[in-house]
Amino acid sequence: MSGSGFGKLFRVTTWGESHGPALGAVIDGCPAGLALAPEDIQRDLDRRRPGASEFATSRAENDQAHILSGVFQGVTTGTPIAVMINNTDQRSGDYARFADIFRPGHADFGYEAKYGLRDYRGGGRSSGRETCARVAAGAVARKMLSALGVEVTAYTISVGHIRAEKIDLAEARRNPLVMPDRDAYERASEFLRTLAEQGDSSGGVAECVITGVQAGLGEPVFEKLDAMLGAAVFSIGGVKGVEFGGGFSAAALTGAENNDAFFFDGKVRKAANHAGGITGGISDGADIVFRAAFKPTPSIAKPQRTVDTAGNNVEISVTGRHDPIIVPRAIAVVEAMAAITIADAVLQNSTAKMSDLLKLYS
Amino acid sequence: MSGSGFGKLFRVTTWGESHGPALGAVIDGCPAGLALAPEDIQRDLDRRRPGASEFATSRAENDQAHILSGVFQGVTTGTPIAVMINNTDQRSGDYARFADIFRPGHADFGYEAKYGLRDYRGGGRSSGRETCARVAAGAVARKMLSALGVEVTAYTISVGHIRAEKIDLAEARRNPLVMPDRDAYERASEFLRTLAEQGDSSGGVAECVITGVQAGLGEPVFEKLDAMLGAAVFSIGGVKGVEFGGGFSAAALTGAENNDAFFFDGKVRKAANHAGGITGGISDGADIVFRAAFKPTPSIAKPQRTVDTAGNNVEISVTGRHDPIIVPRAIAVVEAMAAITIADAVLQNSTAKMSDLLKLYS
Amino acid sequence: MSGSGFGKLFRVTTWGESHGPALGAVIDGCPAGLALAPEDIQRDLDRRRPGASEFATSRAENDQAHILSGVFQGVTTGTPIAVMINNTDQRSGDYARFADIFRPGHADFGYEAKYGLRDYRGGGRSSGRETCARVAAGAVARKMLSALGVEVTAYTISVGHIRAEKIDLAEARRNPLVMPDRDAYERASEFLRTLAEQGDSSGGVAECVITGVQAGLGEPVFEKLDAMLGAAVFSIGGVKGVEFGGGFSAAALTGAENNDAFFFDGKVRKAANHAGGITGGISDGADIVFRAAFKPTPSIAKPQRTVDTAGNNVEISVTGRHDPIIVPRAIAVVEAMAAITIADAVLQNSTAKMSDLLKLYS
Amino acid sequence: MSGSGFGKLFRVTTWGESHGPALGAVIDGCPAGLALAPEDIQRDLDRRRPGASEFATSRAENDQAHILSGVFQGVTTGTPIAVMINNTDQRSGDYARFADIFRPGHADFGYEAKYGLRDYRGGGRSSGRETCARVAAGAVARKMLSALGVEVTAYTISVGHIRAEKIDLAEARRNPLVMPDRDAYERASEFLRTLAEQGDSSGGVAECVITGVQAGLGEPVFEKLDAMLGAAVFSIGGVKGVEFGGGFSAAALTGAENNDAFFFDGKVRKAANHAGGITGGISDGADIVFRAAFKPTPSIAKPQRTVDTAGNNVEISVTGRHDPIIVPRAIAVVEAMAAITIADAVLQNSTAKMSDLLKLYS
User: Fold this and answer.
1) ipTM
2) pLDDT (tens digit per residue) in D223-241
3) The pTM is what?
4) Residues facing residue A32 across a β-bridge
5) Nearest CB to D28: which of A4, A20, A78?
6) A327-349 vs C354-361: helix axis angle to the nearest 10?
7) Which residues of chain B from 80 to 109 reach within 8 Å of chain C, CB to CB?
8) CATH of domain B5-361
């Protein structure tokens, strides 16, 4: 099993390599009767598209989404939705020189150890390019969730040591680093330009907020909502940490400080949200809030020591077309994985109560 | 699906509530021919047993493991291994007063929203008591991994603001907080006693190290090894953050600082381990290292504001038998979930190569 | 994976061997709020109990069902329902002589080839005794289906060459062969007594009818309703053939003869039911009808040629406590597997339409 | 879940409708290092291609397979293999008149009941055209199995009442009905021509033989090899019955007649194969033999009574391009589903023994 499927009822399967003819996603289990147009998918794809800013690789892909099945007369039919995106600007030549060498920070060595061979062109299946299929699938999940009043929004909360001090979503939509704080964005831009000149890259942190989630989502024990979101986000290349609500800082608090008190004002609410909207693995009705820490882009021009497949110790400089930071382009991917996970949780939760079953079957 | 199963080939299903007659695990997919004795399971169960120290609930359970199937003449047969642990010291009376009230920081409200009703005795299925079934299953995974040279070890790296400055595993085995630093342990004990007097509790962080893992484990894209470990660890009650290797601190590094250089000395090795043993979602042959942040025990005697099922705003004081901190008793659970995940990854990896298949079938 | 789990949302996992201390089932995903009492399960268990008639093994098991979790105050909570049945009348001694020999018609040789060893006591996991766990799980599914107006009924349609000419369900409930035709029952009894004297056994066919099934159940392509029922029924030991509606006889008809015409009388109905209630893999609103062909009990006293584990050609006579025919006691198992499959299909179908989702989430 | 995935380790996901732009399959979990060329897939696709004979629809599709991922330099990489087949000769116009009417014997009514809407063009997803994606995936499984010495061969054993009296595989490859008996083929051709003139169709039976299967395949209890093959074959449109070895006739035999005696001649063998190569759900080393009964093509020109979506009772004559019998073109599909199932069973069986695991990991 090469793990290319995700989700139990809202099931996404992706395929494709960085330098193959195309990439795609099959979304199986999307309910019938959802209005879906290519633009719904294109909108999100454009947000992760390369070549869009000075902080993104100059690889020029138009990333056009083609819906090949599952939609009839503008509406989903309940059968698998196949989406395909053609690759147009592969430059495999750039990679021939990495055919026999393991790039530090990349999956090259792991793939070689696992499979005994690998498609070295642009990292093949392990390339960030694979994520455009996730974004396409996420757009379908997002459309389904919108119909239920659920919205998923992510942004860059920090670049290296530079942290956004305020959350201005309009600003996040405006700047290429997707930072919700103009001043932080400007300092981060400077920082990234300097690193780029040095042939280096930076890490950063993405934050995601999910609103409109009803209480009760998530399955107890092993399929808790945070466990499923954790798997979804850790499956994104470069993520080294995930935390919900207070996250690691909660480990330094006391119970009295960390517990979210409930109160009633016509509806059960919480006076705080240290839990990040998930308590005991089940959504508690508050916004779901999580952060993902991304390591720096491993492809850097700076010389590094490594090994080739023959076992020689060599030096390597990974030039080519690479982002100086992963986070901004990963924002759409974080949203996609979150949307897919919540969509699946919503479907699974539909069978939790006999009373709901009786509503549907009588 | 109430999410009580975990793993694809090494499949664990658990059942049971805090105050039911028993809890259990069914381990399906453990290879045949593994020597397995009740003591192999008892050893780990005893480490998470309640009543073992001043920092653990005084609930007196002997947590005796009974193997009911899957083992014949001391060896696994390949059929499901069923393990049962009887509950003996339930005091449901303690909980009657929580039948109509939502304890802050607990799953009470989420379960009520999801299922329309709940077993309020000790939190029912959402109780930490559920984890003894995980530990039993983890012990089987651990036995299988040992045969392959893989060992899983966790310990308490911090209690509140008190952090272990050194890693002395012998010391961690000696003290009830499972801290690998005697001095940190003594300060943490003081801190916890003070909190206990105040009817409060503390959060903390667990660290886990997995040695002897071959390179190549983990499935690309959605079932990366860190994604599966992330799901496994986030499924443990109270975990609010998980990070691998450098984790969140990697987000503040540059590529040159964070990449682990490879070198060859008869075998491909890494000069550093910022990646925590997983690069591109696949094990890279170095030790796997991750940390889990636990929130403070939500059950505290200090008065808290909350709501009852009738929608009244009330005050609650959760007295009873509760740990002042989750981490020390969760150590065995963290190891169990890690072992189960690695065992499953090992089995899945067995079919990655045609050359391996030909080894087995000719 | 030793395949001990069945179903996607209504998920059943079984464990236990013929001569172990107990057998059990874990039912995960049963909706919360279903009234469930031990008697609901006991009723079905008693129907497959051994020692109940001259045509069943004299092994005396009381097959008492113990519900260990998932039910609180007489109602399901949505968490896993664990049911355990203790073994009380094992006579492993009877089997010691089969430890090193492969019984013809049994899984002995296959298990040895697969696992390299086996629990030879009563066939271990491959024993028909394993089915009592299925029956317990099926009783839960049946209770859930009854609430939705779905009923599952099976009976013995033929014993050897003796076929029931009429379907009198009251009669089927009365006689130990569960035949719906008194005259056929009497002739079959005679036939079985004669075979028993000769140390031989007979095959037979079970028929199952499911009423009250709404149209639309089953998932297209690979998880069609007949594909899932087919897997469920073929998973019962001794089943060599399964057919729906006309079944094999449909292969000799023409389209004009075999198509079921639709007509409308306030509701879309069919003028015939050659399809057996499933058309194109989806339930069509008519009764679901299928038949399962069971081979003769392989354990016979008549001498047979076989091989021992050392590779010697030997002769064997399988004396002991064996049914002269599998079908009558398998009737409750056929119903159980059908009920579990339909229950799972009902849950899966709950998320087929956006309109249903909006009903539940707004 | 619209059930478009099959298999646990060798996982196949298909997509596409009869009149959409294309159809495809994603094969996830094929081991790395298998030589795979487009011709390997094309060979099987050509066998089920329409327009190939007088007994197949005249729809002219060249069914060209395009491999879009998972193969690099002629060898599988272990990542998902995506295959796409474009539709070129859709004539949706033919179907506009069926938009509001339920064709007898088709899934139209079930889909409408399930999804509230349907792609009526050529049956959309429920069309036999969907099976070309299965055949493409099956070709990959077949290539993998060949490397292990396993071969899968199916043929038409009967057309209506006309049954092949001998099995001449060369003859089966020669004639368009894929019948292994020249004389039976000639009589069947006459019979089908007569039916075609009458605007009617015929049912038939396919038989499949799998050679070279090692003993030990299949997982006990719910995932027995016959249960998985049963699901695979029943998932093919038009199949109403499946039987292994003696099948339904075994129900009329005695144990002494039906048991296959073992003997040893350097290897454990069976003196007969009433079991059809599967005993107790596990392969026993003999050839696996099963039959599938197909109903007559439901699309017939003869007038039939049915209902439209408005609830009017109407008469319908399904003219257009339809096969007078399903079986011959389904032969490649039966082989494909059998190959996929066995390939998955082989992969799953790789982890049955600790001794095998130690072979791979040390």
Assistant:
1) 0.97
2) 999 999 999 999 999 999 9
3) 0.97
4) C353
5) A4
6) 80
7) 80-82, 84
8) 3.60.150.10
